[in-house]
């Protein structure tokens, strides 16, 4: 049995907890938060046996084999390095860290300690996108000349996302890291030759990060990648992947393609509060969004030493692209704070 402890009690934690509960040989044993009240509340909701008001206590617990870091971005590197030092395998929510330098330190530390550093990026494992990735690698679309990935909604649920000192960046750091992971997987993790970008802060003037960003990538093989990261989108969330090739095209819409439609007279609360009226919904969000596959991949990595579905090195590669995109955006005259 792989015993998992989760650092953090935010919105994303129940997704991981549900995936753990649905994965044979994996058990959620503990949750930690800044306060005991929030830790206990989330532990009850997720059926974890233990709650801590100190992340260090969870990390040092002999009952925890794998530490899943699901805290605000500014804590990722510190907690991951502490867990690695304690000899624990580590999964780190996206983005891997705030900076490329932090990410590289995490990768180096894990190698020295002989533990697994797993980048908890689930979107390439979402079944619709995983199918597109497999078809692309099998040559179904011929020579691919463009891949486009879109992640957009009306904005995050917590104030820390809107400050660079706690998030490291805005919509690109929050949503673009998902898009970049999917595009890289479709193209076999080719190197990126050139990055251009346009960034704006349209709807959140109090913020010092981007809320809308378009990134264009030129890969080593000549394929163009286009990524939209958008916190201004009304009417729900979109996650769309498109592939354009010499022999065909591929299109997958993560949230609007199940065929299941519901009607609500009033808006519902939640992370992405939706408008009333007709809406399409997923049948099994934990499975459809890739969380079950991510946890199954973690089990294989820890038990059989299989390569992570998304490794620490993958997380660093994403950070490098995002850092290049922010530098490129400044050349367009957009003032982004250091």
Provide a descriptive summary of the structure in words:
The protein has 338 residues and is α/β, with parallel strands linked by helices. The chain folds into 2 domains: 2-121 and 292-310, 3-Layer(aba) Sandwich (Rossmann fold); 124-289 and 320-330, Dihydrodipicolinate Reductase, domain 2 (2-Layer Sandwich). The protein has helices at 13-21, 36-46, 55-60, 76-85, 100-113, 127-137, 164-167, 171-186, 285-288, 291-304, 312-330, and strands spanning 2-7, 26-32, 50-52, 66-69, 89-93, 117-120, 144-152, 192-200, 212-219, 224-230, 238-245, 249-253, 261-264, 277-280. The strands form 3 sheets. It has a 6-stranded parallel β-sheet with strand order 3-2-1-4-5-6, with helices on both faces. It is globular and about 55 Å long. It starts with a strand and ends in an 8-residue tail after the last helix.
């Amino acid at each position: 049995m792989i015993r998992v402890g989760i650092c953090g009690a935010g919105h994303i934690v129940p997704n991981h907890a549900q995936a753990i509960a649905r994965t044979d040989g994996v058990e959620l044993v503990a949750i930690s938060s800044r306060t005991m009240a929030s830790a206990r509340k989330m532990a009850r909701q997720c059926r974890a046996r233990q709650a801590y008001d100190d992340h260090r206590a969870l990390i040092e617990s002999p009952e925890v084999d794998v530490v899943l870091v699901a805290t605000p971005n500014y804590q990722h590197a510190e907690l991951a390095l502490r867990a690695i030092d304690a000899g624990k395998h580590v999964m780190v929510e996206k983005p891997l860290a705030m900076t490329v330098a932090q990410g590289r330190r995490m990768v180096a530390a894990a190698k020295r300690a002989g533990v697994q550093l797993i980048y908890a990026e689930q979107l390439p494992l979402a079944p619709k996108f995983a199918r597109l990735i497999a078809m692309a690698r099998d040559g179904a679309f011929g020579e691919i000349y463009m891949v486009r990935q879109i992640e957009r909604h009306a904005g995050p649920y917590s104030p820390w996302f809107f400050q660079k000192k706690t998030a490291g960046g805005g919509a690109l750091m929050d949503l673009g890291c998902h898009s970049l992971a999917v595009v890289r997987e479709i193209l076999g993790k080719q190197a990126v030759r050139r990055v251009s970008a346009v960034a704006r802060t349209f709807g959140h003037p109090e913020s010092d990060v981007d809320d809308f960003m378009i990134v264009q990538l030129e890969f080593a093989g000549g394929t163009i990648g286009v990524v939209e990261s958008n916190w201004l989108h009304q009417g729900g969330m979109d996650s769309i992947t498109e592939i354009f090739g010499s022999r065909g095209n591929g299109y997958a819409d993560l949230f609007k393609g199940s065929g299941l439609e519901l009607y609500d007279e009033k808006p519902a609360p939640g992370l992405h509060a939706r408008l009333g009226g007709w809406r399409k919904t997923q049948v099994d969000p934990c499975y459809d969004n890739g969380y079950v596959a991510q946890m199954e991949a973690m089990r294989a990595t820890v038990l059989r030493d299989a390569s992570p579905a998304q490794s620490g090195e993958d997380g660093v590669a994403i950070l490098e692209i995002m850092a290049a995109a922010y530098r490129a955006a400044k050349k367009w005259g957009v003032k982004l704070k250091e």
